[in-house]
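New to this. Help decode both lines:
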Amino acid sequence: MPIPHMHRKHEPPFVVGKPVTGPYFVDRENEIETLLTLIEGLQKSGSSNSVLIGLRRTGKSSILENTAIALKDNKKIVPVMISCYGISSRSLFAKLLADCTLESYIRKTGDNSYLKRIRKAISEKKGEMLERVSEITFWELSLRLSSKSLDEDSLIGQAFQFIDSLAKDRDCFFVVMLDEFQDAIKWGDLTLKRIRTAIQSQKNVCYVLAGSATSIMHDLVYQRRSPFYRQFVEIPVKKLDPRIVESFMKERFASVGIVPNDQQLTKLASYCDGYPEYAQRIGLEIFLKVGPEGKISNELIDHAYRDMIQTLDGEFENYFVTFSPLEREILISLSIGKKQANEIAREVRNKLQNISKTLTRLVNYGVVERPLTGRYRLADAVFSDWLRKRFSTSLEL
């Protein structure tokens, strides 16, 4: 179906592929207000570290982005945003932590002389020209990162210490937001203990973690054996209420002269399954098909949903192959309607004990939900539909 001519005066009513702000952002004001309250206590030595816990695609990155924007006019607090997704090593994490903190500080304050001194010292290998503790700490960290023998946990500790020393030296505060933090948990308790040791006494810095492996993130905060036990305030990020999705999509479509009826809005909300990202994606698919002031039908919505799944094919494929062979078999079984462990065991021809253990692991990572005792389902209904379309046989359909 060809895309109709677009009038340039109309901006697309939906945004895909990045954190959203302004009118594209929906219904997370309470979470942001809570975060700001915890963060702004920095200026009176009363801040608390916090953690956003929610399923993938529920908008945690957008919450962090909008919190950073809300701090724009606060001259003393510098937000630092880092995604832990896919970081391959602790030494790379340490480098990103220090570099992003320095870049964020320079960007907000314009203190280029500080940056020039460090760059000159590193290029000339003359640390004695540096004036402040934070400058020396950054210089030493840079030298150690180029060394062949690395104590990676020590590097992480030094990177966190740099943030604190920079805040003290420059009389400012930092809020460090670590998105997709579950990817850092894989480095183990020794690394987490080093992080806790580094941050627990910092009064000029507070930390916000965000993660989508829901049970693992809960364990990080609430398990007694966790190095972060009771060190963070949890801010849950849940799926959106269908009425919120309907209202959001109605408003965004209205901005370009598109008027879906109530039944169509209900259908759209059902397809989105409470995920803000899917509301953006299916909304954009529809806009690209009908253009400004276009007409919507139920058939068009169905078509847009199928096209949305198709556009996610590569992303879902890459995500799917990260699971083990048994996990993949279980996910496919769930997608075709097998809900109980014994049903799945028969479907994949594996021992019930193995299935139950693997299901527990998938629940811990937020991939599978257990809405009723003994019953399971995929947490992401769109991913479930993709699996069913991709792997179901004609007999199963």
User: Anything to note?
Assistant: The chain has three domains: 28-236, 242-314, 323-391.
